[in-house]
Write a structure and sequence with these properties.
Shape: globular
Number of helices: 5
Structural class: mainly alpha
Strand order of the largest sheet: 1-2
Helix content: 40-55%
Strand content: 5-15%
Largest sheet: 2 strands, antiparallel
Amino acid sequence: MKKQLIASAAFTLATVLFAPAQAAVDVEAAKLLARDNNCFKCHGIAKPKDGPAYDKVAEKYRGKAGAEEKLIHHVTSGEKVKFADGHEEEHKNISGKASPEAIKNLVEWILSL
């Protein structure tokens, strides 16, 4: 019994010590970055506008490899996006206005919805 307890404690300690550290998403900072860059003009959190709602974006990419990188590219590249009425515009590029960490936090927040 004592050996099982020691083995269990050792496993728990190893899991905690060697698990990759993940910082929690700073929701308020993500929303502030989105507001400051007028993202909410075209995207709602749960309600679509000219662009898809962020919860639908999360649903589309949930569990897919490369989702975070794709969305980071989307908000930093200025690539063209198509609208429901058929017209195209360049997506706003926020890379010059935010740090890579802030952009990553924004994307992680979107994907967490």
